[in-house]
Amino acid sequence: MLLTEEAMKTAIILKMLSALEYDVFDPSEVIPEFTADVGIKKGEKVDYAIRVGGRISILIECKAPNAPLDLKHASQLYRYFSVTDAKFAVLTNGYDWEFYTDLDEPNRMDRRPFLTFNLTDIDTTSASELSRFRKSVYDVGAILSTARRLKYISALKTRLKEEFDNPSDEFVAFFGRQIYDGMFTANVRQEFAPLVKRSVSEVIRDRVNARLKSALLQNTTEAPEEDIDLEEKSEIETTEDEWDGFRIAVAIAARVIDPSRVVIRDQRSYCGVLVDNNNRRPLLRMYFNSPTTRYLGLFDGEVEEKVAVKAPVDLYRYADRICATAEKYKSAT
User: Fold this and answer.
1) Average pLDDT, the chain
2) Any alpha helices (H) in 48-138, and if so which ranges?
3) Looking at the whole model, is its pTM more than 0.85?
4) What are 157-190's pLDDT values in tens digits?
5) Nearest in space to 271 (alpha carbons), one of 294, 320, 238
6) Cα torsion 207, 252, 155, 240: sign
7) CB of 263 within 8 A of CB of 279?
8) How does DSSP classify residue 49?
9) What is d(CA 316, CA 248) in angstroms, rounded to the nearest whole number?
10) Exposure pattern of 77-112 as b/e (b: 16+ CB <10 Å)?
11) What is the pLDDT of residues 59-82, one digit of tens each?
């Protein structure tokens, strides 16, 4: 675990900026400890400012690793947003990331982020939106065109998760009244609360199972990577580190290809990450079974090359090579 804010900046923030194609060694492009000329309290600064096309475009404020992100402790972001040309502000602790803009009022940073994700649990939608911040494709208009939709979808998803985990009286009553014939009293609502929660869980489970069944049927058309019987297959367990590595691989590959094309396929000796669920298109392999010695298999050359790594976050050190591999499959069908 990273212990200091400075270590986090070096190990995660700068590598993330590099993966987004910004030159972290050019202080005119990635400006550390940025201070504005006017309208700012003396000595106040933000951790990084990113200049794109000669203008300050993105502000980044870093907090201690795993510290809760609270805008009360990032007031300088608000002030800098209003006195610079920046259209986007980022608040992060290295793992959790929040992206802000000015959808509600011009030149005034919104209170609610339009994009949030955890780097160790990033989904394909967030990875795709993050890829829009790459230097080579950076387009303020294109990002803003989806920011409003993302902002409210994110808020709705958060609210729905809360309702699914702990259904409110209103949520229970909304569905209960549609199927209960009598008076929907407080006692009836109390009876329905666990039923609604269980029903939500079963609907989600059924939909996940349907997707898995569809994926398994699709896999039967692919050549098997290893001849593993069902008994051996059931013994394979994908670890949290392997899932973290997969999510990071998706985020990196999103610079080049649609992140939905990247899938995970675990094997007995390694955990593979494939493009198009095709074992002839390996993106990388994670040899994480040993608690002391770990390797990453890379495929940007003619044959697989194994390099030593310590943790999933080390994948960012090889972002360029992973992207080079993804580039080979970019136009594949």
Assistant:
1) 85
2) 75-83, 124-131
3) no
4) 888 989 998 999 999 999 999 999 899 999 999 9
5) 238
6) positive
7) no
8) E
9) 8
10) bebbbbebebbbbbbbbbbbbbbbbbbeeeeebbee
11) 999 988 878 888 777 788 888 888
| Contact predicate 124/79, CB 8 Å | no
- Rounded to 5 degrees, φ, ψ at 259 are -60, -20
In angstroms, rounded to a whole number, what is the distance separating the alpha carbons of residues 22 and 8? 18
Confidence of residue 224 (pLDDT cuts 50, 70, 90): very low
Tokens representing 131 are: 């890829």
> Which H, E and C letters describe 20-42, residue by residue?
CCCCCCCCCCEEEEECCCCCCCC
Q: Are strands 55-62 and 88-92 parallel, antiparallel or unpaired?
A: parallel
Cβ-based neighbours of 314, under 8 Å, separated by 6 or more? 296
Task: For tokens 């200049």, name the residue.
Answer: 51
Quote the tokens at residue 133: 């911040």
Q: Within 10 A of 136 (CB to CB), how many other CB atoms are there?
A: 7
- Counting Cα atoms < 13 Å in the Cβ hemisphere of 266 gives 17
Distance from the first to the final alpha carbon of the chain = 40
Q: Element (H or E) spanning 103, and its range?
A: none
Q: How far is CA 74 from CA 106, 110, 162, in A?
A: 19, 13, 26
Side-chain half-sphere exposure of 326, counting CA atoms within 13 A: 22
Structure tokens at 34: 């940025």
Locus of tokens 């979808």? 153
- The two three-digit tokens of residue 269, written as one number: 């000796």
Contact 312, 244 (CB under 8 A): yes
Instruction: Select from 248, 234, 320, 246 the least CA-distant residue to 286.
Output: 246
In whole angstroms, how far apart are CA 305 and each of 263, 283, 297, 299, 302?
20, 12, 5, 7, 9
